[in-house]
Amino acid sequence: EAQVTQNPRYLITVTGKKLTVTCSQNMNHEYMSWYRQDPGLGLRQIYYSMNVEVTDKGDVPEGYKVSRKEKRNFPLILESPSPNQTSLYFCASSWRVYNEQFFGPGTRLTVL
Amino acid sequence: AQSVAQPEDQVNVAEGNPLTVKCTYSVSGNPYLFWYVQYPNRGLQFLLKYITGDNLVKGSYGFEAEFNKSQTSFHLKKPSALVSDSALYFCAVRPTGANNLFFGTGTRLTVIP
From the candidates B99, B102, B108, which should be mutated to test the interface with A, based on the most A CB atoms within 10 A? Predict the structure, then answer.
């Protein structure tokens, strides 16, 4: 089944404790992206990747890192999480940026 | 600044009536435009997109959208709403030549039986 998976689905952590949210797709897509969803703000793009080893900042990259060492994986790293990073995070993938995106189920992160 | 606006946070419509969810954009050039739907506790699902060609685009689940270049709008429409259409709808735009996407703030559609 074609899908985008994210782990964990739910995470409660404390300020400053480094964490990684994994994202994997099995569709051989070149474009991958991370978004955060906040009430009243919609979805905002954090980082995106055009292909392996090619990443770039989206709208709200501060406090986040990403890497794209393999085509299928695109982890999101929070080196020192803060409460304002409490949000619902989505990973997505597509063939190209102009193709339809397939979204993962989301990761709900709470930073205390 | 490039942006996407969904002027209505909430749209209520009676089952069987036509529905419209509005989207306007402010980007340069000829952007690519998308609609996505989010059901409760789910990720977003693609509905339709406009790249070029006919201004009326047909998509999944009977939805369609009308591109209006002069009004920089891309409104989502359906002739007859179903209760199961109740969800959160997002408009998105990819500016010309850009590799990133901008989403609107979302419109919650409630179809009343």
Answer: B99
Min mean pLDDT across A29-38, A61-70, B68-77, B96-105 is at B96-105
Chain B residues with at least one Cβ partner in A under 8 Å = 6, 32, 34, 36, 42-46, 49, 51, 90, 92, 94, 98-106
**pLDDT (0 to 100) of residue A112:** 96
Output the tens digit of pLDDT for each of chain B's 113 residues: 668 999 999 999 999 999 999 999 998 778 899 999 999 888 899 999 999 888 999 999 999 999 999 999 999 999 999 999 999 999 999 988 888 889 999 999 999 99
For A58, the closest of B43, B94, B100 (CB atoms) is B100
CA torsion, ordered A11, A100, B39, A90, to nearest 10 deg: 10
Cis before B7 (ω within 30) = no
Query: Do B89 and B81 form a contact (C-beta atoms < 8 A)?
Result: no
- The tokens describing B40, both together, are 């409760």
Choosing among A21, A30, A101, which should be mutated to test the B contact, i.e. which has the most B CBs within 10 A?
Answer: A101
- Beta-bridged to residue B95, according to DSSP, are none
